[in-house]
Amino acid sequence: MNALTTTAVSGAEILLRALKAQGVDVIFGYPGGAVLPIYDALFQQNAIRHILVRHEQAAVHAAEGYARSTGKVGVVLVTSGPGATNAVTGLLDALMDSVPLVCLTGQVPTHLIGNDAFQEADTTGITRQATKHNYLVKRSEDLARVVHEAFYVARTGRPGPVLVDLPKDILINPAPYDDPVAGPHRSYRPRTEPEPAPIREAIRLIKAAKRPILYTGGGIINAGPEASDLLIEFARLTGAPVTSTLMGLGAFPASNPAFLGMLGMHGTYEANLAMHGCDVMVNLGARFDDRVTGRLNAFAPGAKKIHLDIDPANINKNVVVDVPIIADALLGLRALIEAWKSDSTRQDRTALADWWQRIEVWRTKDSLKFTQSLAPGATIKPQHAIKRLWDMTHERNTYITTEVGQHQMWAAQHYRFDKPNRWMTSGGLGTMGYGLPAAMGTQLAHPDALVIDIAGEASILMNIQEMGTLAQYRLPVKIFILNNEYMGMVRQWQELLHGGRYSESYSAALPDFVKLAESFHAVGLRAETIDDLDRVIAEMIASDRPVIADIHVDKRENCFPMIPSGAAHNEMILGPEHEEEARGITDEGLVLV
Amino acid sequence: MNAIVEEPLRSATISVLVENESGVLARVIGLFSGRGYNIDSLTVAPVEEDRRKSRITIVTTGTELVIDQIKAQLDRLVPVYRVSDLSREGPHLARELALIKVIGQNQNRAEALRLADAFRARVIDATTESFVFELTGATDKLDAFLDLMRPLGLAEVSRTGVAAIARGTRTI
């Protein structure tokens, strides 16, 4: 305790001390009337760097990119009213994808609250369903405690965004600063240690399994890199195949032979059929999302289901499971591995070998197959563009973000992640405009890394103003646009499900992306045919400046395999490369053989 | 079949002990409306001397799975100390209070008074044309009394919703 802790200082000063005590080194924000005292305090110090975004939504996505690529809490600072409402999409995005954030919002002075004052919004009311928790600070004496608590709530249990609403008088009035107090929260006590009984039961089931599968999700990534190491160890011990959700990519190396690729709506043939045909499913840190399960009453019909999740509310929410384990993924995996090693029961290795043989047959279908003509002037296939991007970048220190749509699914399918925290995408909310600001935040956290936003020409325009932020802070983010002149996923659904009536899905009046890049002090590149692709990728990587690479791709390409919504895992549609099977796949036979 | 199938509905009386802070009731109600759960009745009041904790009692209807979800979703709210499913955790008592205004004359008036006596409802206000009864009891007892009052000039009702507590030594 030093003397400063007992001296009264302004609320803004208390706030900055609390942020420093929480280890904050960067915040993403946008000033305004209600937060001017904070900006004045920021001006007079150097410990915390403020990144000025061009729109508050982008501040939140940037903090998400920062958080997901580092495992730390991302911090956002915006003003009252429109500043706060602009941040709402980002907050809900972080809530759906369990990203730890603290969002500080300005508020009108306490005596004006409720009077429809200028730039007043009921921010805690509006964001109650878009945050893990939120606070309105009504007394300066509470400020330090509330900020410390916000960080604690954001990063513990199932991580999520926490908002602190700060009336302007609270930021000005003096009060003493309090250090964070150790010890449990009064009412909030997340459970992280697994109970022994379900761990034993899970191991009993997995040891007896003939067709096991590990289905892993973002919970592994949130539990830290050590959880990924334990996942690799657990997969090795059990000999089970591993599939991953969109959010979990990278937790298990794509290059590991046990990896079946992503599962779900645009998952691989082998991953979805293995899910359909397994007899013991081990869900590690995923939440049985509807994009993953397909039609619920046909989801893995013969399987015993084990579900490890830190959030008890995820248990039996969509799918009823046999063995729930409430735990942090790291502690849960550690307990599973210990229990596996101390249980002397032998596995049925013959059955496991048969299971793998069947999986190998499914693998030969090569469901992500595409054909790229290499003839001069040939049109670039979007999958090929991602594949070449992977070829040319995966040995570097690379981080990938995406926007939302076809390009996102192609990136998930064809960019193969071997490490956690390298893949930042909007999974739950599906927020177009996520990728560029998320890449900004990622680049800030990893200044020397190659950070690439794989984008579509429609999504990128949703937060294109952030090109200004890239220029101001010299962030060499690469924007790799798969430009097919359509909102591709909308077009694909219209083609497959709405009789080819392409209602409002054409990207008319597009900007010249090269000139657009140049006007924002960045480098603009364009690839119109296969002849340009490798050169453009190479130039993009070599540049030490922000780059927009406008890659013109096949306008009619669709993303396959695809499980139409409402269909089962074994009713997936394969692409034109598999035409003879493409009509109504019923592979029940293959599963049961 | 392991997917969610049609299950019978049940009524659940859930007690929630919460930090008495602003917005906590909105959080609970928002959770019910946002996720499409039913609220049949809801009561809330501070229950500790220093008024730092409040107790919310919710009566809801749903399948067993939905009620489990409701409990889990309530439990993950930051200001929630404890969630107790009184209808599942052993015998419990549930009481509701109603203030009931009956307006009528002659025969109906006399009949209303007789029935009130049989139900142990107290007369807490009377004019030559009206009574206000105060009645405490389980929800079905109140419902039954109101059904009887309807043809006798039932004019207005104010009900508190259910307050509930476990029997015996068990506490929340």
Description:
The complex is a heterodimer of chains A (593) and B (172). Chain A has 593 residues and is of the alpha/beta class. Chain A contains 22 helices and 20 strands. In chain A, strands 3-2-4-5-7-6 form a 6-stranded parallel β-sheet, sandwiched between helices. A 6-stranded parallel β-sheet of chain A has the order 11-10-9-12-13-14, sandwiched between helices. In chain A, strand 2 (26-29), helix 2 and strand 3 (49-52) form a beta-alpha-beta unit. In chain A, helix 15 (382-393) crosses helix 16. Chain A is globular. The termini of chain A are far apart. Chain B is an alpha+beta fold. Chain B contains 4 helices and 9 strands; from the N terminus they run E-H-E-E-H-E-E-H-E-E-H-E-E. Chain B has helices at residues 24-34, 64-75, 106-118, 139-149; strands at residues 9-19, 41-46, 53-63, 80-85, 92-103, 122-126, 130-137, 154-159, 163-166. In chain B, the strands form 2 sheets. In chain B, strands 5, 6, 7, 8 and 9 form a 5-stranded antiparallel β-sheet that branches. In chain B, a hairpin with a 6-residue loop joins strand 2 (41-46) and strand 3. The radius of gyration of chain B is 19 Å and the shape is elongated. Classes of the chains: A alpha/beta (593), B alpha+beta (172).
Gyration radius from CA atoms of chain A, angstroms: 25 Å
Query: Mean of the pLDDT scores of chain B?
Result: 94
Strand order of the biggest β-sheet of chain A: 3-2-4-5-7-6
Largest sheet of chain A: 6 strands, parallel
Q: How many separate helices of chain B? A: 4
Structural class of chain A: alpha/beta
Class based on secondary structure composition and strand pairing of chain B: alpha+beta
Keyword list:
heterodimer, A: 593 residues, alpha/beta, six-stranded parallel beta sheet, 22 helices, 37% helix, disordered C terminus, B: 172 residues, alpha+beta, five-stranded antiparallel beta sheet, four-stranded antiparallel beta sheet, 4 helices, 9 strands, 27% helix, 40% strand, elongated
